[in-house]
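[job 4417] fold queue: 2 targets
>>> target A
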Amino acid sequence: MEGIRKTDSIQRQTGKPADGKTAEEKDKKKKSGRQTEDGRRLTDAGKTPAASRMPKQKRSAGRQENARQKGTAEGRKNTRAGKKKRPPEDSKRRGTARDAGRPRDSERTVRHRRRRRKPHPLQIIILVTALAVFCYSAVSLIQIFLEYKKGTDTYDKIAAQFVMDPSEEEDGTPSEDTGVQETFSPLNIDFAALKEANPDVYGWIQMPGLDVSYPVVQAADNNYYLYRMADGTDNTAGSIFVEAANGPDFLDSNTILYGHNMRNGSMFGRLKDYGEEEFFQENPSFYLYTEEGAWGYDIFSVRVVSATGDSYQISFASAEDFTNYIDNAVRTSMYDTGVVPQAGDTMVTLSTCTSSDENRLIVQAVRGEQVN
């Protein structure tokens, strides 16, 4: 108690506290202490004294403004340095928590492409089917080509063996073209040797404009030579054969000769060329050979008819029936040939297939003068 009274006595005498400091000085020291303590706490927390006294929302807005100002300052600094500000590594890919653990976009793209490259079973089936169809078609085309070649080679061999063409030299090469139109020279055919090789051979047909020169055969059944060549071997080209109901001497009122419409132009494959009147004007006739001689046949009608129609009539009950038949053939021809057969004439009908199974193309001609 004595000490306290002594301190108070000193303070009343000097007007100052016993420690020599006034109340104002103590207040300043106290404030300074608080600021120093606050500074330590804010330094540890990474905050300014002002921010510590701000509400939470204002502090957040302040941080954003400071960050914006800082970014602006750094951007200006980088611009002055001639450099672009590189984005933080974390900003290269943005996403939510749902993206955690997912591969990067490039990795997903690669995996997606790998999944697409794996063919679907249906695609494999389609591919295999298409490949099988292609192979089958290729094999079929090769077989057709070989059949055509075999047929052509066979008939060329027959012609070389039994026929002599006066328009060719002795070595088999065509004679030199002098530029002058030569008269028709009939073929020299060894029918005795031909009939010895095949007794069914009854004639030979020559159509210079169509490059047709084949033996003519006949059997008791029209199907026999349908896919069989004149030498007896099987081939899709078949033969030029006479209707089984006709006589073998071409003396019926209408003798019918059948031949395939081959795609390579062999047999009667080019008979459709007579569908053009201009071609007819250049090739108005063809020739038939028998053991008795050779005759020219003048074309009087070219038309498409029913496969089972009256056009295939081979004999007539009267001259009137024959005349009516000829009148109809001339009237329905694709063009007027200027040739009209008369009663008592004999004619030949050349028949081949068309694109329709129900129709046939026929070229009809009447026997003319004997050429050999």
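>>> target B
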Amino acid sequence: MKIAIHYFSGCGNTAWVAVHAQKQLKATGHEVVLLQNIEQAFPEQMPTSDVDLFISPTYFFDIPANLIAYFKRLPMVAGRKAVFWSVNGGVSGFSYTHARNLLKDRGYEVIAGGCVEMPDTFLFLKESQLTPEQRRGRLEKALSQISDNLKIIDVLPKQKRENIFKVIIGAIVAFPYLLWGRHVLGLSFVARSQCVHCKKCVQDCPVHAIAFGKDRPIWRTGCVGCFRCINNCPVAAIDFSKYAFIFGFIGAIICAVFLGILAPLLKIFAIIFGFLLGWFVGAFVFQKWFVHFADKSLCLSDRKRVLLTDEEKDL
């Protein structure tokens, strides 16, 4: 069977899954005709395959915005088989449903979904609590999940019904972030004075949401929340600033109250819109004029960033 693999990887977890899926497929006699990192050049012509395997990290219960854009650029097909895997820390959320619908719009028939649990690289207000032994156990479990998911490809099953309750809950979290949160999250990032101006974060950002200012990186809207910049910074200079949240919250309250007074007939909608708009404005003001607070009131400080070690990559 010919398999085409498409994937996006923020900090390396999904790339690890894609490579190990390729190894297991080849070991069982399948032919991998494409291993496509979506950050590379878009393939001019899709190779002939029996199944297209799409592998994505799950951010805020959904697929990343750049993968959504990739799906929308895929050429139209007629009934081509597809499988979607979510790579996450334990919750797939709305990712499978969203991916299936986008692929269906391009003519794909999504026959199955799978989940692969990896060590969490999400560092928002926390750090990984896994010990090295627990991380290795998680990776060994991931290898087993990859094997189980590939067995499903062999039989090409008919699509199963999803748990509607889980889909609704996932959508409730996913869509506000997709529509609003990704325009605000990056505005909470700061580069501390220990930044060595290597511009690695600017070069590595998969959605080009980082520019370099006079003396440090500047984050703009459109961040997908992959945390590559935080995890890959060679001197661990990138962090979240609590001041960004304070500015955002103050802006949200002021704007919500103001719009609530201006539009009494649409008060609840005006307040919600005002809160979201105000948070964006507050975070933007912080990033534009008050980023010199970068070394103060940080959320992570010098906590360990979370990436796969060389030993784990070779597992």
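[job 4417] complete. Note on B: Residues 5 and 53 are 5 Å apart (CA to CA).
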